[in-house]
Design a protein that fits this description.
Belongs to the prokaryotic molybdopterin-containing oxidoreductase family. This protein is of the alpha/beta class. The chain binds ligand MGD (2 copies), iron/sulfur cluster (SF4) and molybdenum atom.
Length: 733
């Protein structure tokens, strides 16, 4: 094994790690191994973003490798689906069973009756993002569209400014005005915070736009709390103000922006007074925000993933993208927008995933609508007869999840799940395949939160009979008789071939540097001098920031969908940004609101990483049980007291939680967080109330666009067990 410093001591070695999670920070880690045991995992102190600290989720990551609940051997169901009754079987038997069932399905229904279901449960280029695609493409299976996150914002981004990463998160250190829009940085992008702190120490103002007083909003100089899904109105009114008050940089706009006259016309009626009625933000505040932003140099915007999660979310994102284009903020080092910066990484998606193997016409099913697909509500010919789920936990994380559970109970469905634990989804498997954890396999991480590649070295042997995802697919390929050379490559060979090392942004930073340093930043210019769009140079067809689109159609970009070579042209897109009303809001749906008057949002839990860690009692104590934040007004109306057990429900389903009454939420809004396991909750999970509807673009989810009712179910003493969260530290030392 290539240890960093094999001489540390005879018995102690250190290896480079990369956090495998779907988190923008992609921390560079150091694994310490004593004998054959992983004894410590810490943040790499030399990494400019990780700075030696991991988050509360991973500060005891070595222990997780030895968690007693891990799946260490292949398992076969030994009871009704969902009963969690499994028996250990050999790998040979597991593979033989899969071969038998899949061969029969292929001969009776065709390979499209088999559907892979995966996402970024592991975000590695080898073990996560791409793994299994080539296998299923060769097999002829249904193509899984995976748009849980950032697909909508990516479509809006690609249409407006092209595949550019734009603002370096490290450049925020030089900001003078920062807007965090729909992102809870202190929980979800923690390692960006020090750059914001540095900027504030130098006088920057921090504005957070979030419907509730999140951890991050509490730290802001100014918290603006619009109703969920009304950001489009807010952004359009900012645009109206910029234009009406002559705060537009006309030189920049004339040279580098497409569609200003048309936007001006559309924005004319979007006054702050109009937006106040929709968003609940006072008109004067909207004007003040627009003025402050436009008159500050080095004005930065961070847009979080949450912004896309309503019917109008992606249109709102387009409007937000127009703002720095109108003010010429891109001319400054810290000016512009930090969205998911993933486009500059020269990943060989095509060579690894082999989309060229997908037969023309192969159907695509979106995993957010898995429930409908499994229950046959979406007409599918052939119906789905088998699922292989890996790197995802749709029973908890997708939409309309009660339907998924019902579908997974189908007797004629053969479900294979590869996971580290018996997740809420794995509970319904016929066969579970045991997967490795990060220190047990090789990988290479890109990032959607910074510009560094991070190497992850195998530091210890896989426990029991666990296998890396890549090894699982090598075994499956052999079992199914697929002999292409792709299926023979080792994990290390896959690591080396994941990147196009000839690309200009990786010159001088190949595998050798990664092996000696553990990480390497793309050559995109220094964070303190870089202004990639000071002179336009947007990678769009016109080379400009395209506020006005011509003949644009909806599409899902890779890596959220694989059909790289096939034109994807969905519904036409509004040529201009604007405000699209949510599907469900009390203002727009008064009849529905009589039954379900409250909007719900369920963003990320501080102490969980999606559903990861929510199976650890320690992390559950930190996070507290499934809570439901209610305003004093809404609680009083329902005679709910703090600590009462409540049911949250709507037409789609329901879940139970514990009420916390707080001014952090406005009347009409309910906030909870996602990640709690169905198995641990009294009833359902937050996505039991999420209707399976796509947002505006990129087939993104609409987790923030559901009306619900809340009802007290029992007295408060019954609800108190370990509900009170412990105070949670932000970063480990
Ligand atoms: N601790 C922790 N960190 C994580 C994760 C985790 O599960 N736990 N998950 C990781 C993943 S997969 C992702 S995608 C990122 C996501 O990270 P973020 O982009 O921060 O997403 P969320 O935490 O879901 O939501 C951020 C904030 O947006 C607000 N919000 C919700 N709807 C709206 C809206 O309509 N408008 C506006 N303006 N704000 C809205 C929420 O109240 C919330 O405070 O976090 C990553 N990091
Ligand atoms: N209401 C609501 N719903 C949401 C969100 C929200 O904010 N609110 N967020 C959405 C977003 S942004 C996202 S990204 C999705 C996330 O949804 P998922 O990606 O489904 O979430 P995870 O809980 O991370 O599930 C990953 C699973 O993969 C397993 N796993 C981890 N590593 C490995 C590995 O190396 N090999 C294998 N085989 N398995 C592994 C884990 O144990 C876990 O069971 O959820 C979405 N759902
Ligand atoms: S902040 Fe935590 S979850 Fe995110 S990359 Fe770092 S260690 Fe991983
Ligand atoms: Mo995500």
């Amino acid at each position: 094994m290539p240890a960093i410093n094999p001489a540390t001591t005879a018995n102690k070695k250190e290896f480079f790690g990369g956090c495998p999670h779907d988190c923008p920070d992609t921390c560079a880690m150091l694994y310490t191994v004593e004998g054959d045991k992983l004894i410590n995992v810490r943040g790499n102190p030399k990494h400019p973003i990780t700075r030696g600290g991991l988050c509360v989720k991973l500060n005891d990551y070595s222990d997780r490798h030895y968690n007693a609940d891990r799946v260490l051997y292949p398992l076969k169901r030994n009871g009704p689906k969902g009963s969690r009754a499994f028996v250990r079987i050999s790998w040979d038997r597991a593979l033989a069973e899969i071969k038998d069932r899949w061969t029969k399905i292929i001969s009776s229904d065709g390979a499209e009756a088999i559907m892979p279901v995966s996402y970024l449960g592991n975000e590695g280029l080898v073990q996560g993002l791409t793994v299994g695609d080539a296998f299923f493409n060769r097999l002829g299976a249904t193509v899984c569209e995976k748009t849980y996150c950032a697909s909508g914002s990516s479509t809006a981004w690609l249409l407006s400014v092209g595949p550019t990463n734009a603002l370096d998160p490290e450049s925020f250190a030089y900001s003078k005005y920062i807007i965090i829009w729909g992102c809870n940085t202190l929980s979800t992008n923690l390692h960006h915070w020090p750059f914001i702190v540095q900027a504030r120490e130098n006088g920057a103002k921090l504005v957070v736009i979030d419907p509730y007083r999140s951890r991050t909003a509490k730290q802001a100089d100014w918290h603006i709390a619009p109703k969920p899904g009304t950001d489009g109105a807010l952004a359009m009114a900012m645009i109206q103000t910029l234009i009406a008050e002559n705060l537009v940089d006309h030189d920049y706009v004339d040279k580098y922006v497409l569609g200003f006259p048309e936007l001006k016309e559309r924005a004319a009626t979007c006054t702050p007074e109009w937006a106040e009625k929709i968003s609940g933000i006072p008109a004067d505040d909207i004007r003040k925000l627009a003025r402050e932003y436009a008159t500050s140099r080095n004005a930065s915007i961070r847009i979080g993933v949450a912004l896309e999660r309503t019917a109008g979310g992606t249109q709102a994102i387009r409007a937000v993208i127009a703002i720095p284009a109108l003010t010429g903020a891109w001319k400054d080092v810290a000016g512009g927008i930090y969205q998911a910066p993933l486009w500059e990484f020269p990943v060989n998606f095509g060579a690894i995933c082999r989309p060229d193997w997908i037969k023309p016409g192969t159907r695509v099913v979106n995993l957010l609508k898995l429930g409908e697909a499994l229950l046959g509500e979406t007409k599918l010919d052939p119906p789905i007869k088998s699922l292989m789920v890996y790197n995802t936990n749709p029973v908890t994380q997708a939409m309309d999840v009660d339907k998924i559970v019902k579908g997974l109970q189908r007797d004629d469905l053969f479900t294979v799940v590869a996971d580290q634990f018996i997740s809420d989804t794995a509970a319904y498997a016929d066969i579970i395949l045991p997967a490795t954890m990060a220190a047990e396999h090789d990988d290479l991480m890109f990032s959607w939160g910074h510009y560094y590649f991070t190497l992850n070295q195998k530091a210890i042997e896989p426990p029991g009979q666990t296998c890396s995802n890549a090894e699982i697919f090598r075994r499956l390929a052999k079992t199914m008789g697929l002999t292409d050379p792709e299926f023979l490559k080792s994990d290390l060979e896959l690591v080396e071939s994941a990147v196009d090392w000839t690309a200009p942004q990786v010159q001088g930073i190949g595998m050798d540097l990664l092996r000696t340093q553990g990480y390497a930043k793309l050559n995109l210019g220094a964070a303190d001098t870089r202004t990639p769009h000071a002179e336009g140079k947007f990678p769009t067809p016109s080379g400009k920031c395209e506020i006005l689109l011509t003949d644009a159609k909806n599409f899902v970009a890779p890596p959220f969908r694989q059909l790289y070579n096939e034109m994807q042209s969905g519904e036409p897109i509004d040529p201009l940004p604007g405000y699209t009303r949510p599907y469900e809001s009390a203002a727009d749906e008064p009849e529905l609101a009589k039954l379900y008057p409250l909007n719900i949002i369920a963003p990320k839990s501080h102490a969980f990483l999606n559903t990861n860690y929510a199976n650890e009692p320690k992390k559950r104590r930190m996070q507290g049980d499934q809570f439901v934040l209610l305003s004093p007004h809404d609680a009083a109306e329902r005679m709910i007291e703090d600590g009462d057990k409540v049911k949250v429900y709507n037409r789609t389903g329901g879940f139970q939680g514990v009420a916390h009454i707080t001014d952090d939420v406005r009347a009409g809004l309910v906030v909870t967080t996602v990640g709690y396991w169905r198995t641990h909750n009294e009833e359902g999970t937050v996505n039991s109330v999420s209707a399976a509807r796509f947002g505006g673009m990129g087939n993104c989810p609409t987790f923030s666009d559901n009306l619900v009712q809340v009802e007290r179910i029992v007295g408060k003493n019954a609800a108190r067990s370990m509900h009170e969260p412990e105070p949670v530290a932000l970063v480990s030392a």
